[in-house]
Structures are given as structure tokens and as C-alpha cells.
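Below: protein 1.
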Amino acid sequence: MKLYTKIFFALIFVYIVLLASDKIYGFFLNENVYLKQVYIQKKKINADFLILGNCVPNKLINPSILEKITKHKTYNLAETHANLTENYLSFYVYLKSNKAPKRLFIYTTPESFDPSFNKFSSYRFAYLMHDNEVRKTIKISDLNYYRWSFIPFAKYRYYNSPLHYSALQGAMHYFANSKKRIVHNGYLNFEELHKYRSLYPNGYRFKWDNLQEKYLIKLIFLAKKHGTKVILFESPFYSRKNELPNRNEILQKIKQIADKTNVLFIKFDTLKFPKSNFANNDMLYTKNIEKFNILFARRVLL
């Protein structure tokens, strides 16, 4: 057999292996109900109140407390380090399998627009790359990953370990026929810091990413299109004097977006919690989280 013929059949073999791996990974990821994007499609949440944001509301807003006070089913769809573009795509995926919530709460702070703090995690949507809106959003947010995704299995191999572990979990769920969900309402318990730690160097100036502004507005309009009332909110916040010189300027820009889109922007930093209540600038200690959730629930009922 000539050399080029051997090379041809070797390439065919590699392609078949990669294609098979691609299908297997996609299947098992779609069985991993520990992933929020999978859980919201398989379990039909149909929440009245939906929370979006990054790790702060994921750890701060406890749906169980809100439900007791508001009598409205609540789900926390926030994800660790998720930026506003990812929030948009999460809500888009949610709507494909669930009815629109009555109210959508979007955690919106200066960090939401600063790429140094939050990012778009393409791997969370890897098994949904067949969807046109998912592909389009990933192309805008992560062009290099988008280009590699056309090669079979590359979209699962590109970010490596997060998806390997998740696919293995999915396989265990599938073969064990698991119906359990540890965080059934999306709330993430966490081990808090024992001593206050600032997240910022003194004098840090927040950056503004226009793409995040674009997708926040797109998210608001998507929600309104489905009859959902949108509320932007910020958590309680602590900083030293002059630690963040342009923070108020960025908050004012967020307020302008809220006014332009005719939505409410609630600034809970006006509550002025003392430093002793905080684990870091924007995260309360566990003992204070219930107190904040009660205040939050009462505020959203207004």
C-alpha cells in the first residue's frame, strides 16, 4: 500500500474517532444535571423570579428565603465569573425550555462591565453549539474557540479539564439513572473567608466593556419581549475612602442604561453595612446573608 494511501486511511480513522468522541461527550454533558444549563432544560424550572449574575448573587441570593417571604418560586441562575454576555445566553437557553419568569433580577455592578473580573465561559455552552444564537454569541465573545469548534471534539478539548470532569459526571448520572440535584434552586453555599480581604488594589479604576453594555440591553429587551419585568440590582458594598475613584461614575452609567431601557436599578450599597459584615468588598458573611435576603425580598415586592 502506498504511503499516501496509508496517510489517507489514518486521517479517516482519526476523524471517525474524533467524531465519535464529540458525540459521546455531547451526550454525557447533556446528562449532567449538576450543570445549570442542563438542569434548567431537563427539570422545567418555570420560576416566577429568576436571578442572573456572577458568583456574588450565586452565593448571596438564597431562593429558599425569598420564596418563604414572597410566595413566588425562585431560581438562581447566576454562574461563577459569568459576564453579562453569558447571562444573556443563559437566559436565552432557559427560555427554550421554561416559561418566562414574572421578574428577572440582573446583578449589575461596575465589575459586570470590567473584563478583569468576569468573563464569558464558552465551555458551558459547548454541547449547545448546534444552536445558531449560541454559535453567534460565542463567535463574538470567544472567536478563537469558535474557529476551533468546527473540528470534531475540539470544542470539548479546547478548555480541557472542566469538560472532562463534567462529561464523566454526566456518564455517572446516565448509568446510575440519577434524578437528584444537590442545588435544586441554583443557590451555591460557600466556605467564607475568616478575615476581610479587599479585592482591589488601592486606586483601582474600573474599565468599561461596550460589548457587555450591548448584551445587557439585549438581555433586557429579550426579557421584555416575553412580558418579564426586569430589575437591575447591586449588592451591599464596602470600600475604603478613595479605594475605587471611578466607581460612582460607573454606577451612574448603569443608571443611565436602566433609565434608557425603562427598568429599575436598585443600589443596595446604600444600606451601609459595616466592614465587620463583609468577607470581601461585595460578599457578606454567612450570618448576614439571611438578613440581606429578607431586605431584598421586601424590596422586590414594592
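Below: protein 2.
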Amino acid sequence: MEFRTLLALSGAVTMLAACSSADEPAAEEAAATPTPQLTSTPTPVVADDGSPLTPGAWSINESASGASARFGLPGENAQVVITCNRADSTMAMVVAGSGEGMQSYILEAGGTAARLDMMPDGDLDLPSMSAEIARDAPVFGGFVMPGGVIEITSPRGAVLRLPGSSGIRRVFEACA
């Protein structure tokens, strides 16, 4: 009787072992699972209110001499550049475009507006307007708000609508 019991038990153990191995994923199935990929934050194309934004993205660069925030499409000239020169703690803003003499641009961000008088920078290959800026001007607080909208209106009425970016804060802090 003991022999029959042992035979029955060994048969039961073999069946259980066969059942439990079927639940484990096959090596082929595990290899078919894709590896997660890190991606960058999507570039916003519309503001939170659904209105369109100027195509492009902010890129922030820092070095021993200062920092800059550039807005534009990859591989193209920037439409807006904010720079900090650490040597003399000056900040400047450059906007792509041309004009003769001083031109008044309107900046709006974070519920605040300001006039910025800009001058042509003299670059004939890539005309732009530039001005020194005060890092503590209230309008620039809105530039660093993620989800916010920055509007830069030229004297001719053309409007650049850019997404706010917390990365811009690093440029302002570089000149603190």
C-alpha cells in the first residue's frame, strides 16, 4: 500500500510542476516587451486657453560667462533670445526682425505688460532688434511660469506668442 501511495504522490507532484511552469512567461515573450524610452517634454503648440502658440521651443544654455534662453525651431535662427553677461551683470533681449531707429515693443506675460524700446542690432545677415532689460521688471516674472503665455508685439502689430518656461529663471538667476 505504501508503494501505491508513493506512486500516486509522485504523479501528483509531476502534474503540479508542469502546471506551475506554464504560468511563467517564455523567454521569447519577455524579449518582445519594449524597453521604456525617455522622451523630452512635448513642445506646446497651443496655450492653456486653446489659442495657438508660435512654433518652437526654449533652449537654455549656461557657461562661465553667462546664460541664455533661445526660442525657435531646432536648426533655425532663434526668434527670441534672452541673455545674461555675468562679467557686468547685464541682461539683454533680442527679437528677430528689423526696423529703423528705436522701436517700441509690448511685452505681456503673467498678467503684466511693459513697453520695451529696442534698437536694430546692426547685423545685416540676420536683422534683429535688441535692448537691455532689467531682470527685476515684473513682466519677466510671467516668462518663467510653465503653462503661461508670453506675448511680444512688434510696432507693426505682429505678435509672437511663446510658452512660458521655468528654465528661463536660470538666465535671470545667472545675473543675480
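Residues 57-174 form a domain with the Immunoglobulin-like fold (CATH 2.60.40).
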